[in-house]
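Memo to structure team: turn this sequence into structure tokens by end of day. - J.P.
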Amino acid sequence: MTLPVTTPFLPMEALSVADIPTGTNWQYEPKWDGFRCLAFRDGDSIELQSKSGQSLTRYFPELVEALAALKAERFVLDGEIVVPQGKGFSFDALLQRIHPAQSRVKRLASETPAQMIVFDLLVDADGKALIKDTLDIRRKALEQFAKRILRGNAIIRLSPATTKLTDAKDWFARVGDALDGIIAKRRDLPYASGTRDGMQKIKNRRTADCVVGGFRYNEGKKVVGSLLLGLYGDDGLLHHVGHTSGLKATEKAELTEKLEKLIAPPGFTGDKPGGPSRWSTKRSAEWQPLKPKLVVEISYDHFSGGRFRHGTTLLRWRPDKAPKQCTFDQLKQKTANLQKLLA
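Reply from structure team:
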């Protein structure tokens, strides 16, 4: 490629903070829950690059086709790959796209086609690099690019952005838990490749009460490493929904002794951990089932496909809570249309 910005080029990253920053130098965007992607086009050559610098091109042929159909022949876009499902997006369907068999990739590209939501322009349609320009200049250039090149495009879509804090808070009010969070970017800074300077993320964190249906030992040590979490479904079964770790080292020995007294199969009567998966390892299949006696309150940032996404944080033990009270009902999200934010 002869572009002034070429792959591998690390995208700027976000520092995780608790509160939305305020001031005239900040721009706010929705935090989309997908795969970060830089899209490079130089004539007939198109490359999709992940946040880590790896190629995503072979996994999303429909995006390559959509980018090739654009009138502009030279550009670099920064955005997020998502898979629409209903009124929102499915991360589980997105994960399925990373598959070694090209025949399966082709089938899924037809069955669960992806979209790319763009929020920055690193090289414009004239082949000019914009990474040294401040965000306010790049955003104006991106909006012009979208107006000229992306108008009416259902696959490559422009992410909304605002400088008004009230607008960002309104996104939460409109779509609630369905939104993964807010991204805040400094308008007065250039593109900070590979760093967290000038970009912050505010996660939409929530809490839930879960049954401890099992645990795993630390690798190489006979002390508890992580707790396996369960929720009761409408079928009355206890389903595995994720795990929590980060246990205090000073408490592990005492907690291990407490848990070992409760070891008894089956632990989970519904979905179980360590099932056949290309993501599972020998260690992930080794777990100890527990009687459903203990309840914990955890903090999480996203729940989809019957599981907590990312990690969860143990907040406290809930001896006052009956295990049967820990149901999926507490995780029901407000009915929302995330895709309306793109309209």
